[in-house]
């Protein structure tokens, strides 16, 4: 069983930055593929970025060059650095851990608005 707790969301102006963090419980964090997903009102949940246990990374085309995912296995934490934010990035962002099963955090709201 893995428990995930996200933090770092909030309100930011277009062009601004935020860093999301996701702290995971458990002793074997390093084996999980960790990901960030988002869901905007009226839309399906979509992959934003994910990083495997070996460090392979995948980004959604819409965030390439603006967002960076990273993980610190010693701290059982995965991060999402979001730069050059746009209003269309507004969504609830969810942390995901996958290894045979999917685990989800409760989500954190990111709102990009002037």
In short:
This protein is mainly β. It has strands spanning 4-7, 10-12, 18-24, 33-39, 46-51, 57-59, 67-72, 77-82, 91-99, 101-104, 108-112. The chain is globular.
Give structural notes.
The chain has 114 residues and is an all-beta fold. 0% of the residues lie in helices and 53% in strands. The protein contains no helices and 11 strands. The strands form 2 sheets. Strands 2, 4, 5, 6, 9, 10 and 11 form a 7-stranded mixed β-sheet that branches. A 4-stranded antiparallel β-sheet has the order 1-3-8-7, with no helix packed on it. β4 and β5 (46-51) form a beta hairpin. The model has no long low-confidence stretch (mean pLDDT 96).
Helix coverage percent: under 10%
Q: How big a fraction of the residues is strand?
A: over 45%
Task: Characterize the biggest β-sheet.
Answer: 7 strands, mixed
CA-based shape: globular
- Secondary-structure-derived class: mainly beta
Task: List strands and helices in order, with pairings.
Layout: E1 4-7, E2 10-12, E3 18-24, E4 33-39, E5 46-51, E6 57-59, E7 67-72, E8 77-82, E9 91-99, E10 101-104, E11 108-112
Parallel strand pairs: 2-11
Antiparallel strand pairs: 1-3, 3-8, 4-5, 4-9, 5-6, 7-8, 9-10, 9-11
Record keyword descriptors for this entry:
4-stranded antiparallel β-sheet; 11 strands; 114 residues; 53% strand; mainly beta; 7-stranded mixed β-sheet
């Amino acid at each position: 069983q893995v428990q995930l707790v996200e933090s770092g969301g909030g309100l930011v102006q277009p062009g601004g930055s935020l860093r999301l963090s996701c702290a995971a419980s458990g002793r074997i964090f390093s084996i999980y593929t960790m990901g960030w997903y988002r869901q905007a009102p009226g839309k399906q949940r979509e992959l934003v970025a994910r990083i495997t246990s070996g460090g392979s990374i995948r980004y959604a085309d819409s965030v390439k060059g603006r967002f960076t995912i990273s993980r610190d296995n010693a701290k059982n934490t995965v991060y999402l650095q979001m730069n050059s934010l746009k209003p269309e990035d507004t969504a609830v962002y969810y942390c995901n851990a996958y290894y045979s099963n999917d685990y989800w955090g409760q989500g954190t709201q990111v709102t990009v608005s002037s």
